[in-house]
């Protein structure tokens, strides 16, 4: 058995915070794009539509216990502060954001990104995010356009309903793109957002599984794509292991230089979790798994119908660290609105940015005479300057002093 990847560290400290945590690994070599992030505590999923006034999540999952921890993992659907799985997570000046493992300002959050949010319940009905982590599943050049989608690094990318996409003429072979997506398995991804990047960086990033180890060829096959890598990096990989790979593209061949495991959701027993993914039943006992490695257990009464292509599982972490599913919901597509996140103001609810501005009252057609701009005539008062008498001053008479010269003949 090859050694597992190391736990990701930031500024010399392990990425574990009191409460619910998400562990990541640190790339073993410099280079690449990053590909790790931080997560902590968060909450909820809505099932009847997105509303910035409601923060209870998917129907029946409202959290009211102050201090309760929650982890949310899904697509950013809209902004109140930031809405993931229908739950509005409050952002503050202390909320940390990483994008592909690098610190970023909260203004870089975008609708359609896949976010891992960690939060605690503050005031009743309010979830305050401690950390938000955005990880692009795929970064690299488009190799081909096909069937309403396109290919990058051997992955077929299909836009989801409501996906945030650039103009079609920009998605041409050779264009460098960053893709927020959920894996459906077998190298197919459902994209919720695609951003075009400057050409020429040569960086790539891919989330997937280790299909084959090929030491004789100096590399491995990740999600169907062969990549070169150093012997020390190859020695760390385990076949079938889900991970995030970063590196450079050299003469059309990916050269992997950094590795990290996919997010591993963990925390104290009772931590609430709400996760959007492509779950499928893995056994008759209620075990659910997703292509990216997220797994959960659902009671038989929860699985009374077939799962949709994407679903949101709602539940808690058990005493063994596993996810216990209480019910399953259908996610909503991202909003088409282009508002920006709003920070909480000293713990108060975020301002609503989705409602139209209140209109001024109409006057029902009545004419209102504007006030006259001509003021009354004011006669200026006469102001006489005061008379100032200057006294006559006579200069004093000054007599010069008499000076006696001493007689020097004595």
What this model shows, in words?
The protein has two domains: 37-135 and 263-329, no CATH class; 138-261, Copper binding periplasmic protein CusF (OB fold (Dihydrolipoamide Acetyltransferase, E2P), Beta Barrel). It has one helix and 27 strands. With 410 residues, it is mainly beta. It has a five-stranded mixed barrel with strand order 4-5-6-10-9. It has a five-stranded mixed beta barrel with strand order 11-12-13-15-14. The termini are far apart. 1% of the residues lie in helices and 39% in strands. It has one helix spanning 231-234; strands spanning 9-10, 13-14, 21-23, 69-78, 82-84, 87-90, 96-99, 102-103, 114-121, 127-134, 138-146, 149-152, 155-164, 176-185, 188-197, 203-214, 219-222, 225-228, 242-250, 253-261, 264-266, 272-277, 280-281, 287-289, 295-298, 311-317, 323-329. The chain is globular, with a radius of gyration of 34 Å.
Q: Care to count the β-strands?
A: 27
Whole-angstrom Rg:
34 Å
**Average of the residue pLDDT scores:** 75
Percent strand equals 35-45%
Strand arrangement, largest sheet? 4-5-6-10-9
Structural class: mainly beta
Number of helical segments? 1
- The assembly state of the depicted protein chains is single chain
- Low-pLDDT stretches: 1-56, 346-381
Tell me the distance between the termini. Answer: 131 Å
Largest sheet: 5 strands, mixed, barrel
| Number of separate structural domains | 2
Form type: globular
Helix content: under 10%
């Amino acid at each position: 058995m090859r050694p597992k990847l190391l736990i990701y560290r930031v500024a010399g400290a392990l990425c574990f915070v009191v409460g619910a945590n998400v562990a990541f690994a640190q790339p073993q070599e410099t280079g690449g794009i990053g590909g790790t992030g931080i997560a902590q505590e968060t909450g909820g999923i809505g099932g009847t539509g997105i509303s910035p006034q409601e923060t209870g999540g998917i129907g029946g999952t409202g959290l009211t216990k102050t201090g309760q921890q929650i982890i949310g993992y899904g697509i950013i659907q809209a902004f109140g502060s930031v809405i993931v799985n229908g739950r509005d997570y409050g952002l503050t000046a202390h909320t940390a954001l990483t994008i592909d493992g690098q610190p970023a300002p909260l203004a870089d959050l975008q609708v359609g990104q896949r976010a891992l949010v960690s939060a605690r319940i503050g005031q009743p009905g309010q979830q305050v995010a401690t950390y938000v982590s955005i990880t692009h599943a795929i970064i690299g050049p488009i190799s081909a356009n096909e069937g309403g989608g396109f290919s990058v690094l051997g992955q077929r990318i299909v836009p989801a309903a409501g996906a945030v996409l650039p103009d079609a003429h920009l998605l041409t072979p050779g264009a460098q793109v960053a893709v927020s997506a959920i894996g459906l398995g077998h190298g197919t991804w459902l994209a919720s957002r695609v951003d075009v990047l400057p050409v020429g960086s040569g960086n790539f990033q891919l989330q997937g599984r280790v299909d084959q180890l090929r030491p004789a060829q100096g590399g491995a096959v990740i999600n169907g794509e062969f990549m070169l890598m150093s012997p020390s990096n190859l020695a760390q990989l385990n076949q079938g292991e889900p991970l995030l790979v970063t590196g450079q593209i050299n003469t059309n061949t990916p050269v992997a230089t950094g590795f990290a495991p996919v997010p591993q959701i963990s925390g104290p027993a009772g931590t609430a979790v709400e996760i959007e993914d492509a779950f499928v039943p893995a056994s008759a006992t209620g075990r659910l798994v997703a292509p990216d490695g997220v797994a959960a257990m659902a009671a038989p009464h929860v699985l009374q119908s077939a799962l949709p292509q994407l679903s949101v599982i709602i539940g808690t972490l058990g005493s063994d660290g596993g996810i216990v599913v209480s019910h399953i919901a259908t996610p909503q597509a991202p909003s088409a609105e282009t508002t920006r996140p709003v920070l909480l103001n000293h713990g108060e609810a975020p301002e609503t940015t989705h409602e139209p501005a209140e209109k001024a009252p109409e006057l029902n057609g009545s004419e209102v005479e504007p006030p006259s701009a001509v003021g009354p005539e004011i006669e200026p008062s006469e102001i006489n300057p005061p008379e100032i008498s200057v006294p006559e001053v006579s200069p004093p008479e000054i007599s010069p002093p008499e000076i006696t010269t001493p007689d020097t003949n004595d």
